[in-house]
Amino acid sequence: MATGVVTKKNLWPIIKANLSLAKGSYAAVGFPGDSAKAKQSRGGGMDNIQVALANEFGSPPGASPVVPARPFMRQTFSGTKRKKFMDAGTDLLGMIAKGQMSTRIALGRLGTMGASAVKDEITSPSPAFVPNAPYTVAKKKSSHPLIDTGAMRAAVTHKVRMKSGIGAK
Questions:
Q1: Which of 20, 14, 3, 21 has its CA nearest to residue 160?
Q2: Contact present, 165 and 20 (Cβ < 8 Å)
Q3: Nearest to 97 by CA among 37, 155, 23, 35
Q4: Which pLDDT score, from 0 to 100, does residue 165 have?
Q5: 30 in the Ramachandran plot: left (φ > 0), alpha (ψ -120 to 50) or beta?
Q6: Quick one: CA dihedral 132, 136, 141, 146, positive or negative?
């Protein structure tokens, strides 16, 4: 039986740097990129972020037309749905602490998970949103409250925002 010397790489400096970065870094999920500024083809000159805000919070009192709140962002990250993101974050932090993953990659995975969940909430909200008014259904030929052209849903993305330091961009 052959014997030999096994050299293990000291990962502690890398792990320590990644854990330090994790403290001030995050994944911004929703409309953090340029796609938020893209104008909607049928949005009356509104861009994706304006349409998203109007749907998330609804129209202010006394505004016309009345748009009910359809809080797709809040529903995605609250209540029992929040637990899956907390659990994923805990698992990813564990991988960072073991030297199995960088902070940037872990946050990228969490951001991808969040963006996918927001898109799912837009498509199949739970609980369901207030239905479209008959006029709206006739105008856009759809009864789905948050999807007209699909531009807002397609604009949902994420960006990893790294605290300045090692590995930051």
A1: 21
A2: yes
A3: 23
A4: 53
A5: left
A6: negative
pLDDT at 70 over 90: yes
The single residue listed with the structure tokens 């207030």 is 130
Least confident of 34-48, 66-80, 92-106, 148-162: 34-48
In terms of Cα–Cα distance, which of 91, 111, 89, 88 is closest to 100?
91
The full length of the chain comes to: 169
Supply 97's token pair.
């602490």
Cβ distance 109 to 92 under 8 Å? yes
Nearest partner of 157 among 27, 26, 29, judged by Cα: 29
Tokens 């030999």 — which residue?
Answer: 4
Helix axes 12-24, 81-97, angle to 10 degrees: 150
Q: Angle at CA 89, nearest 5°, toward 96 and 125?
A: 150
The overall average pLDDT reported for the chain is 88
- Identify residue 55 by its one-letter amino acid code: N
Task: Please report the pLDDT score of residue 45 as a whole number.
Answer: 80
Candidate from 6-15, 44-53, 85-94, 151-160 with smallest mean pLDDT: 6-15
